[in-house]
Write the structure tokens for this entry.
Amino acid sequence: MTDGMFGAKGTGDTSGYGGLVRQAVNSGSSERPYGSYFDEIADDLERAYPDFSDAIERVVVDRGELTLHVKREKLVEVAMILRDKLKFEMCMGVNGVHYPEQTGRELHAVYPLLSLTKNQRIRLEVSVPDGDAQIPSVVEVWAGNNWHERETFDMFGIIFDGHPGLTRILMPDDWEGHPQRKDYSLGGIAVEYKGATTPPPSERRSYK
Amino acid sequence: MTTFDPYAPSRETTEGKVFSVTGGDWDALVQDIGATKEERVVVNMGPQHPSTHGVLRLVLELEGETITEARAGIGYLHTGIEKNMEYRSWTQGTTFVTRMDYLGPLHNETAYCLAVEKLLGITNDVPERASVIRVMMMELNRISSHMVALGTGALELGAISPMFFAFRERETVLEIFEMITGLRMNMAYIRPGGVQQDLPEGALTKIREGVKLMRKNFKENATLLIGNSIWMKRTQGIGYLDLAGCTTLGITGPVLRSTGLPWDLRKLQPYCGYENYNFDVVTADTCDVYGRFLIRMNELEQSLRIIEQCVDKLEKLEGAPVMVADKKIAWPAQLALGGDGLGNSLDHIRQIMGTSMESLIHHFKLVTEGFHVPAGQAYVAIESPRGELGASIVSDGGTKPYRVHFREPSFNNLQATAAMSEGGMVADIIGAVASIDPVMGGVDR
């Protein structure tokens, strides 16, 4: 195969659907001062939580947002202190992100926190390997995370240990696989209704 | 082999006798249930039920008419929007998010676009006129959304007239939307970098007239329910949830404000220039359905105030750009109305087809491939009619989102169903759910 005309590299796909650029998301740790109210939060947390340096793997400040990467074993402890001592009364849920290329930390769970008292926001991030996708549940800390954790389990297969009833929430109970993972392809599935089966859209066309 | 007849009036299962209610003789049904000698009755309400506010399934455990346990079952409207967005360009994402919470499409679009702009680092480059248009559209949207909340909420509690009037008012807003965006719902009007197109001629006049009409009508409509003794009895003290309950469950929006806490992101964490508008945060201190109803009623007037200020600003900003100047991000065309409908402006086509090969390439690349967004993640929250709507977006540096997650207020707030209704009467769960105002398109995404 010859090189494409006009200097096109790779597949020459200009539609964007071929994924011309797929860089790994890799942001290192941020250095102090973090700016904004983030230094204050880091100081307060360090004071209130002696295990800070052990529990917090990385502190990332990016685009005006503070992210604390927490070890999963310490998540509930950190969450309790953030809620009670640092007044992050609300957790705005959890959502998963799947990074298949980050070996050993493929699955991330992201928790945006909100403080009503101080009008501040931070984010907690926990990463776990695909083969051992278990994270302690924070439902005891923030009851409102119940459905969010069920959704993240449903979509990514992350198991939240200690959740009061970790079942699928959006997909049917007997669904196989976790649709939001990167290895789960987009595409139709066969629909079965009253004994008749309609093939998925990708297999319906004869000109495929 | 026994055949299963889904339409049989009753059948025996391992859990006990199951009755299927599809209309018919209620006395006979009650007699049959009485004959089972079961104290505890589990009622499956929905997912197709006129009072569940959409395809929501409520599983209620009853003792007599008292609810001992209430569980909400969701997922019937799951369409995989978040997954689909990973296969489309950043601009095409607006077409998906607008279909999530279908009563607040412009809020979804704004939250998404603000997050994309944050990742792009162009938050401050969005032209003022675009931000003012966004605010105006969002406030109009808040009115149309609250109209549905109030109208259907009243309907579900048996008051039919308020719904007719609410939908009449909503029509005023939808006509404005249709004039400006071409569509009444799911507009995909707000785009990363600004808005899709400038306001058409006569839009501001129409909005001014609409505001005048709505202000008059809202006052009349309020008299239908405020002070109405049946309405008060059905809503006061019902669906109680206090501040502690709200914080632990992550509840925001009118439900949180009904506990007396003036938590409104438009005031406290302003976006799109909300700090430049005069308006009040409406609260109530009753923690009940009535308080939430009053909040929505009074927020209508505040929205009208903001819209009027927007119109004043827009008159001064006539002719200003509505999209970022960066041609690597801005959609490469101005739409114009031609003989065959709305489409690319002929001037633009003339330029790319006749005079500049580079413009054509640029247009083609941007429309098919889209723009690149620097890698990273962002969370942007806005105050939607139902509470904190958060867009959590991850980019890997490509032309498509790596991951999009919406923190939907309806999804989160629906968890309060049990806390609001357990221990109450079965008839009151309808009012409690209606006061949360869940939109199932947003819940299930």
Summary: Residues 128-156 of chain B form the longest helix (29 residues).
